[in-house]
Write a structure and sequence with these properties.
There is one protein chain. By secondary structure, the chain is mainly beta. 13% of the residues lie in helices and 44% in strands. It contains 2 helices and 16 strands. Strands 1, 2, 3, 4, 5, 6, 7, 8, 9, 12, 13, 14, 15 and 16 form a 14-stranded antiparallel β-sheet that branches. A two-stranded antiparallel ribbon has the order 10-11. Strand 2 and strand 3 form a beta hairpin. It starts with a helix and ends with a strand.
Length: 219
């Protein structure tokens, strides 16, 4: 029995060593997870945690998410250096794509940004957009790729005191649309905006703590 157990442990150790040998560098979290992996081609892959110190008055922060072939992909979460959730961003092809949300110190929603990612592997990208002159009608347009995400959709800015929308802007493929008539984005009736699901989920968990990790560099 002991001999069988020995071979099982040996096989698991060899399997882990083989798995990590394909990485040029990585770190090990306190939970034993392999993070911040760089493959032999020098590309970031899988779960990553990035740390940014305060620079010229700009607050430092940490972000966590997934890299795929050196590009951010899917959901990325931003935290203050105190461990508070400060933003949730979405990425496609390494560029912001969809509605990104940013929060204040008390978890209140501060603003929402709407982005559209263009495929960086194409010089021109074909996308479908809503016709602003004929709502619920869509048209296909061809856009030259400038190598960055473009503003597309409604951007909302919230009053930190009341939680109401204080201002909003509408963009169509990077172009700011002029507001129609005398319609205003701000609500005159004060109301409380419910905290976003991301904030509620975060508050249920134990506060994020800064911890040391093992450097698994194999340079």
């Amino acid at each position: 029995m002991r001999r069988i157990l020995f071979f099982i442990i040996l096989a698991m150790s060899l399997s882990e060593a083989y798995s990590q040998s394909k990485w040029k560098s990585y770190i090990i979290s306190p939970k034993g997870d392999t993070l911040n992996c760089v493959d032999q081609q020098g590309k970031k892959q899988g779960p990553w945690v990035n740390h940014f110190d305060e620079v010229r008055g700009e607050p430092g922060y940490e972000e966590e998410g997934i890299y795929k072939d050196d590009r951010k992909e899917g959901t990325w979460r931003l935290y203050t250096l105190m461990g508070d959730l400060s933003g949730v961003e979405y990425y496609k092809w390494g560029l912001k794509d969809g509605v990104c949300q940013y929060f204040g110190m008390n978890g209140s929603l501060q603003r929402e940004e709407s982005w559209r990612a263009l495929n960086p592997d194409k010089l021109y990208d074909t996308i479908t957009v809503e016709d602003v002159e004929h709502l619920d009608h869509y048209k296909t347009v061809i856009i030259k790729n400038e190598g960055a995400a473009i503003k597309d959709g409604v951007w909302k800015f919230y009053d930190p005191m009341t939680g109401t929308i204080s201002r909003q802007e509408t963009y169509t493929l990077g172009k700011l649309e002029k507001p129609s008539g005398q319609q205003t984005a701000a609500s005159t009736a004060p109301k409380t905006v419910a905290k976003p699901k991301e904030v509620l989920d975060f508050e249920k968990k134990i506060g994020k703590k800064k911890v040391k990790v093992q450097d698994g560099s194999v340079y």
